[in-house]
Amino acid sequence: MPGKSPEELKAEFGFEKMAVLWNNENNHGSSPMAKLEIEKALEQTYLYPDPHAIELRNLIAEKVGRKVEHIAVENGSESILSNIFQAFFFDGDELLTSDGSFVAVYIWAEAHNIDVTKIPLTKNYAFNLDQIQKNISNKTKAIYIANPNNPTGAVISKLELRQFVEDIPEDILVIIDEAYFEYAEGLGLDYPNSIKFSKPNVITLRTFSKAYGVAGIRIGYAVGSPEVIEALNKVKMTFAPSNLAQAAGIGAIKDDAFVNKTVANNTFWIGKFYETFTQMGLNFYRTGGNFVMIDLGSEEKAASLTKTLAENGVFIRHLKTFALPNCVRVTVGKPEENQFFLETLKKIYLEFSN
Ligand SMILES: Cc1ncc(COP(=O)(O)O)c(C=O)c1O
Questions:
Q1: How much of the chain, in percent, has pLDDT values that exceed 90?
Q2: What single string gives the DSSP state of each residue in 38-107?
Q3: Maximal CA-CA distance, the chain
């Protein structure tokens, strides 16, 4: 179930003050440069978009230090995942991944009739790379890794991921989803940029939905070997993404000022969240994204905290449907929303912890 819109929530509960922190969106809004390009593109909506999205792919190529034939764009990175399943999987092929990761992966694999082997997360809610590697079989067509993982926030270090990728046979595709790349870099972690691995079987997914704030317009990209990218371009809809979506990417990718502001706000508030959660004795996990996961120890407590916060106008995500029933996830919002969340949490803490 996707979250209800803030408008629906306001109409339902009539709050004066609200903080919607449940979808890992960028509450600062959209990149102004993206908006400018979208406005310009509105004059062109009677035309079909460039099916090769050359301008945007060139800009991405320049940004990530690759050539245009290494770049595919689509209606969000979720669409790229779906295209990967369509382009590479045959009957009996299996996707190997983890439990407790990005739910769209499981949904799209199922929609394409693909068997998914899910390895349990480690006790720290991270991808268990050792076990994933041990479970490779002759059915394994691809491995999906989210770094950082959503919803747990866990980050795989540079050395760990490089070693893992080196050890995977080259006929298995390694999908590395870096939807929160900009946030992870901003947090100053030991965090790998998987594009630099330059392995022909590695495909990196990135998106304009998070730090660039254009989730609603649907634009994401993949960086991989020309052979893999060509296969993805063969299965995509001819005119995807739309010219408004291409325009959003063209503007957003140049908008360092907006991304820097967003990332700085995130880094600051992640620190504040950690500080407050530590003072309150909450069992939280360090994150590479714009969200933090807290383990409440029981499903009842996780559900009750989510409900009590919602009754006070603060919306966070109970992770029951993510196979993490004891946990909740809260997204970093604007400063006033984060402040409101922390104040409300402290106020109701005694009630739910008893
Ligand atoms: C790990 C991960 N990958 C991909 C996405 C979706 O990105 P997009 O909006 O580009 O489809 C999300 C969104 O929540 C995510 O958490």
A1: 92
A2: HHHHGGGTTSPP-TT-HHHHHHHHHHHT--GGGEEEESSHHHHHHHHHHHH--TT-EEEEESSS-HHHHH
A3: 61
For residue 337 the two structure tokens come to: 């929303």
- In this structure, whether the domain defined by 32-254 belongs to CATH 1.20.1250.20 is answered with no
Instruction: Tell which one of 77, 144, 149 to mutate to probe ligand 1, the residue whose CB is within 8 A of the most ligand atoms.
Output: 77
Measured from the CA of 23, which atom of ligand 1 is nearest?
14
pTM: 0.96
Structure confidence by residue, pLDDT tens digits, 277-315: 999 999 999 999 999 999 999 999 999 999 999 888 999
For ligand 1, atom 7, which residue shows the shortest CA distance? 77
Q: Tell me the CA–centroid distance for residue 15 and ligand 1, in Å.
A: 29
| pLDDT level of residue 6 (50, 70, 90 thresholds) | low
The structure tokens listed for 21 are 């922190």
Task: For the chain, give every domain's residue range.
Answer: 6-21+257-348, 32-254
- What CATH number labels 6-21+257-348? 3.90.1150.10
Residue with the smallest CA separation from ligand 1 atom 2 is 179
Measured in Å, residue 77 CA sits from the centre of ligand 1 at: 6
CA of 140 to the centre of ligand 1 (A): 23
